[in-house]
């Protein structure tokens, strides 16, 4: 959500930190995030690759061009959390396999 908002130059919905670990709460947060991402238009994102993206992370001010931000920060961060969630689910007994993580693969 933050990535799309930063690239589009708009604030994403506020998602406060919560201790609620229910499936319903998680589903609601995912639906809110998806709704925001789906609301972004091409016009809002056009030219973002050259726009300076500025944010504060870990107590430090950070700046990157949009393309670098996406490739060097946002996507690695996304895959870190996807991998972490996948690992936690597997550890807790959810029957997931590598194909569930990778999704459909179009082999040549």
Quick summary:
With 108 residues, this protein is mostly helical. 55% of the residues lie in helices and 11% in strands.
Low-pLDDT residue spans: none
User: How many helices?
Assistant: 5
Could you give the order of the helices and strands? HHHEEHH
Helical content band: 40-55%
The strands making up the biggest β-sheet line up spatially as 1-2
Q: What is the rounded Rg? A: 16 Å
Supply the helix-strand structural class. Answer: mainly alpha
> What number is the mean pLDDT?
92
Taking the sheet with the most strands, its summary is: 2 strands, antiparallel
Query: How far apart lie the N and C ends?
Result: 33 Å
Bin the strand percentage.
5-15%
Number of extended strands: 2
3D shape = globular
Describe it.
The chain is mostly helical. Helices cover 55% and strands 11% of the residues. The protein has five helices and two strands; from the N terminus they run H-H-H-E-E-H-H. It has a two-stranded antiparallel sheet. A hairpin with a 2-residue loop joins strand 1 and strand 2. The longest helix is centred in the C-terminal third of the chain and has 26 residues. The protein is globular. 5% of the residues are buried. The model has no long low-confidence stretch (mean pLDDT 92).
